[in-house]
Design goal:
Rossmann fold; 7 strands; binds S-adenosylmethionine
Length: 213
């Protein structure tokens, strides 16, 4: 694991996990809901969630896939996954499997092809985000959908607010470079996927992008 990736792991094995939901759920819930509503997620789908963290995406996904569907959540932080496990137990969710793994080294470990692949607030903090992205693609079936939601560098006159949004994201591993990587990732999705759509929110500092393989 690179030095930068190790630093990210340390953040999420530290204090951040304890108060993560309190600070993050309220702020991002609306934008996430919009993305999942805009997706093709349907009853019975199998959904692979990279960087699942404490599982804040799970309720949005479960609303769409129902009890016949399945979520496979992957994250490399034991502390974040502990919170996800608590949530699963409290809500009696029976169709979620959690895997502790580094998604930049994950390619060989999955033996299923998911209908949909999701990663929210993950790619922009991963130095090897291209590897993570291609791992996601390789574990989603052909014609399957990819949903990415993340922070990004704002452009146009909103760009003057980038230092502010990067400051807010810093506690969670956000950097100028990471937010810039989101712009590159979007271009990759636009080029390599079909039916690609992108929406921007919060002074253009957050986006979601959905496309089909
Ligand atoms: C900002 S949180 C996002 C959690 C969740 N997706 C959400 O939207 O609330 C980022 C998560 O990515 C995980 N993560 C970062 N790099 C990773 C990697 N290389 N492999 C697996 N998980 C990683 C962290 O442990 C953390 O739980």
């Amino acid at each position: 694991m690179s030095f930068k990736a190790q630093k990210i792991k340390e953040i999420y094995e530290g204090k951040v996990a304890k108060k993560y939901d309190l600070s993050m759920n309220h702020f991002f819930a609306r934008m996430k809901r919009k993305a999942f509503n805009d997706s093709s997620l349907k009853n019975g789908d199998c959904v692979l969630v990279f960087c699942c963290g404490t599982g804040l995406d799970f309720p949005h996904i479960l609303r769409k896939i129902g009890k016949n569907g399945k979520i496979i959540g992957v994250d490399f932080s034991t502390e974040m996954l502990k919170k996800a496990k608590e949530k699963i137990r409290k809500n009696n969710w029976e169709n979620i499997e959690l895997i502790e793994a580094d998604i930049t080294k994950y390619e060989d470990k999955l033996d299923i092809k998911a209908d949909v692949g999701v990663c929210t607030l993950g790619m922009s903090i991963i130095p090897e985000y291209k590897t993570a992205y291609y791992n996601l693609l390789s574990n989603v079936k052909k014609q399957g959908e990819i949903i990415i939601g993340d922070m990004q560098l704002a452009t146009g006159w909103h760009a003057r607010l980038n230092p502010f949004t990067i400051f807010l994201a810093k506690r969670y591993g956000g950097t100028y470079e990471g937010h810039q990587n989101s712009l590159e990732l979007y271009l990759m999705m636009k080029k390599e996927l079909t039916e690609v759509k992108k929406r921007e929110f919060f002074i253009k500092a957050y986006y979601y992008c959905i496309g089909k393989q």
